[in-house]
Amino acid sequence: IDLALGGLTAERAEEVRVALLLPVGGGFTLAAGRNATPEGFVLTTPNGLIAEALDSGQLTYADAASHDPALERLGLAHGSQVAVCAPLIVSGQVEGALVLAHSNKGFFTRSRLDRLDAIGTLGGITLHNARIVRELEIERDRIMETEEESRRKLARNLHDGPTQTIAAVAMRLNFAGRLIERDREAAQREIKTLEEIARQTTREIRHMLFTLRPLVLESKGLVSALYQLASKMHETHGQAVHVEAEMNVSDGLDMSKQAVVFFIAEEAINNAHKYAEAANIWVELQRTEAEGIVLEVRDDGVGFNVGAVDANYEQRGSLGMVNMRERSELVNGVLHIESAEGEGTRIILEVPVAGKT
Predict the structure, then answer these.
(1) What structural domains and CATH numbers belong to the chain?
(2) What's this model's pTM, rounded to 2 decimal places?
(3) Cβ neighbours for 86, distance < 8 A, ≥ 6 positions apart
C-alpha cells in the first residue's frame, strides 16, 4: 500500500481509498487498507471491478465506483467516483488484488495507471515469493518434526524392548553364575534361556534398524520392502502379515513418496501387532484408475474407538495415527482410518503418483 501511494504523488492523494486483498479459502481477506473497511474482512464473492480484473489479469479501471457492490463491502465506494484494480497474478497464480478508489474523476491519469500497473506486477512477485518462502518454511518444520518423532519412536522402542531385555539378561547372568556352584544342570538351562533371549533381542534390534532405514526400499522399491517387512515381523514377533501387491504397482512413484507409504504401512502394522492383538494383518497395494496408489492395511484384532483415541493425543496409539496423517499430508495423500471395538481396523492411504512431494 505504501508503495502504491508513493507512486501517486499528487494533490488529494491522501483521499485515496486503498485495499490489499489476499486469497483465503474461496474468497479474499482484506489484509491491509486505508480509508476502508477494517482489516480482516472477508470478501467471499468478488464481483464487478475486482472480478473483471482477476478474470482478465490486467489493470482494470471503472468510472462508476460508487455503484460497485464489492467496493461497497470493502468501504471503498462511499464518495468515490473512480476506482482501479491491479490483479496480483504470477504464472497464473492469483496472489491477491490491489484496489484503489478516489472521489476525483480525473485522479487516475494515464501515467499514474502505468505506475500502478508496474507496482501491481512487482507486488505480485513479492507476494508470490513470500508465499513460496512460507510454504518452504512450513514444509521444513514438518520434515524436522517428522524426523524428531522418528527419533522419539526409536528411543521408545529401545526403552520398551532391548534396553529392558538386556537389563534382565544381566540380572539372570548373575543368577546363573551363582547357580553353577550348586546346580550345574539348572545353570545350563538358564544359560540356554539367556542365549535365546539374546538372539531374540538381536532380531528385535535388526528389525528396528530395518524400519529405520530399509535399504531394500532404496535398492528394490516399495513392494520388495513390504514383503521383507512382513517376513521380519514373522521372524521377530511371530506375527502373520500377508502382503498382496504386483511388483510393478509402484512404478512411477518417486522414492520420497514410496518412503512415506512404507512408513505408514510399517506404523499401521506395528500398531496392529502391539495394540490390536491381531492374529493376522493384511497389506494390499493397488494402482487406481486415477493414476494413484492405494495402500490398505487391515487386521482381525480387537479394534478401537477412532474418535476416542483421536481425542487423547498423549496415547501412543493416538500419536501413531497423528504421525500417519501428517506423513500422508506431506505427499498430498488422503488417509482413512476405520475401526470399531471388536471389529478390527482398516487403514487406507491414497497417494497420487504425480504432483507435489
Answers:
(1) 2-137 (3.30.450.40), 233-357 (3.30.565.10)
(2) 0.57
(3) 4, 53, 59, 97, 98, 99, 116, 117, 119, 120, 123
